[in-house]
Amino acid sequence: xxxxxxxxxxxxxxxxxxxxxxxxxxxxxxxxxxxxxxxxxxxxxxxxxxxxxxxxxxxxxxxxxxxxxxxxxxxxxxxxxxxxxxxxxxxxxxxxxxxxxxxxxxxxxxxxxxxxxxxxxxxxxxxxxxxxxxxxxxxxxxxxxxxxxxxxxxxxxxxxxxxxxxxxxxxxxxxxxxxxxxxxxxxxxxxxxxxxxxxxxxxxxxxxxxxxxxxxxxxxxxxxxxxxxxxxxxxxxxxxxxxxxxxxxxxxxxxxxxxxxxxxxxxxxxxxxxxxxxxxxxxxxxxxxxxxxxxxxxxx
Length: 300
Prior knowledge:
Elements: E1 28-30, H1 37-43, E2 49-52, H2 63-74, E3 76-80, H3 94-107, E4 111-115, E5 118-121, E6 124-130, H4 136-153, E7 158-160, H5 175-186, E8 189-193, H6 194-203, H7 208-214, E9 220-226, E10 229-232, E11 238-241, H8 250-263, E12 268-271, H9 279-299
Parallel strand pairs: 1-12, 2-3, 3-4, 4-7, 7-8, 8-9, 9-12
Antiparallel strand pairs: 5-6, 10-11
Helix pairs in contact: 1-2, 4-5, 7-8, 8-9
């Protein structure tokens, strides 16, 4: 590893139907938390990059920017947004885009991503990433929003597959076809969240191995892993919650190995956003992902 912060190449917007070219190192890391910054700066772990939620850095100063500036001097960054509401009925907020553009210009991250979800309507904001009906009309709306975001920011984005707990009635597009059409039409890349695949497929009684097999891996610029919480619905059926509060389970690791075998090594992030442990625990999870990347490279 150890490319560190030397690369500040701005991801350009590629044309329709082109493979996404990632500017992140094809190595594993974990999400940066403020409580871990001092330890990381002191110990200099052998990682290439960290990922942060830009919404946590939209103020102008304070400890968050102090530490992120120091981290950026040593490591590359990826910004993973949760607030653009790409799938909402309205165009993404111009104020949010302005603050986001300022962050992109300030920290020059190697990647920027968002979720296939909606979280706002008119003046209302919801503390969740809500699912979309997978229709052609929705697909057209999402493409329009992504075109606007990429044009406004001057930055190519990645779009993450969702974790879902309910399904819409009526004719729906296949989720993989939906994502592939968006990437093809807009030139955005895709962020393959393997834990989301496992969660959604379990909740809707689908085959996660087939999902990984059929995913358009040429568009993938980053992979996410994470832990989920087992629960059950009102009928007693299994229901998984994308909680990001524990270790990655064996079944998700197996799906990750499948994805890497098909699409090759990708920048890989372990998400742990709730009940966050000490950073050596996160470092151990990232090492597990890095070991899989090394094994795939050796077998290629």
